[in-house]
């Protein structure tokens, strides 16, 4: 076998002239791809159309080795458990990437060797076939074992055995589809080059052809596919935004937006706004928990339909908050929502219970899209919403007499934490302008989160960093345990980041393509397998595939934050007379066992 595994010592094939390069015969295709020996011309040779079909479905030996390697690596553990359908999809995508890498590696090798492609020996395909069965079988077996371990770590019991068994077939279908798409793009390029050669030289035709095809593919992917799908999703979810979920009722109190005397009509709040103001603990429920008379919490909200722009919505929400008497409460919480305007009820309910109901919460909607899609396309809107709402609240709050101001808190989950951060320049700004901050599941691209984590104290791991001895900013995987550094003072305003080691929202980054992050090289966390390793390209796609399912795991793992809010708010707010037993009872209220 030749050095690149793609040919034999028979010598390079003779170069084809322009006419031969333009011909789509099966023999030329096999020689160009290195997929097999060409058939000698004869009267029984298949017509060109049959040759085109062989060319479309032919594969190269180097490409197949790359596809096999990447397909096997797709079974290495990621952050979350995955079913057979998702595993097949990831395996197929990885195989397509590996095939491209193998073809590229062979092309580079031939360029350095200064020769053309060679036909592989028949036994080369035999060796590959046997290796493929053995390696893929072993990888599949280890993959199922690792998936079992991940499910056991997270307490996941659902497992579809038939889908797991057919996942290799799903992978093969995905790989074939991606290969056909790539072949179609290549065919378009070659046709364009042949056309351009009528007017310009071969090198110029090749350069212009690649540029034109790349631009066309980019326009299709970003314009027709991405923008079209986002537009369709926006239209679909805007219709859903007009509905009201079961259990959410129009408030009968003046202390909620959408209720009597509200400056924000009920119909303009949107689906999540109506969930926010139409639910929540009552004064009686809070009093039952505290054992003392409680106050009815205030909730103010403005939806996309409430005003035309972000600043106007923020101003309207603050105006309604003022009407309700929110600035006369002891505790005031500013929440930046996620996606379609969702406010995590566990976060706000915990805040209201621990404050004895003497609290007010305000939020605004900035998108119709669900959280995972907003995470990709609505980052700018989240930034604008977070800054506009806090600035509007702070403008009114700062004008109050110092002795009559409520304690000002800030919170946000996922993309909401990203938007919430944008109102502040850094640690001192957070400390000076708030009484406390709680951000859960912060994306890796959060500016302040990235700054605090990257500049962590020496010796502290990325999964739970320590910043400036924890004087203001701290990080917790499990706030029920001691939040490090437990032996250092945590005075004044407290800023707390909640982040599960298995949360892909926290760890996903484009840098995963080419750079190993510290959180993998170090101890990965209590709910992440030690066997997880970083692999170029592969890890990036593994974590990317985890993103849409980040919240589809039991609480305490992935992107599911529920009872953690109880301990987190207790650490940030420091309410008096709250015992560990009280926190346990509140957790049962926030997330009762099913």
UniProtKB/TrEMBL annotation:
Residues 37-49 have a biased composition (Pro residues). Residues 75-281 form the Alpha/beta-hydrolase N-terminal domain. Keywords: Membrane, Transmembrane, Transmembrane helix. The chain crosses the membrane at residues 56-80, 86-113, 125-147, 159-182, 203-226. Pfam families: Abhydrolase_9, Abhydrolase_9_N. Residues 298-586 form the Alpha/beta-hydrolase catalytic domain. InterPro entries: Alpha/beta-hydrolase_catalytic (IPR027787), Alpha/beta-hydrolase_N_dom (IPR027788). Residues 22-36 have a biased composition (Low complexity). Residues 1-53 are annotated as: Disordered. Signal peptide: none annotated. This is Alpha/beta-hydrolase family protein.
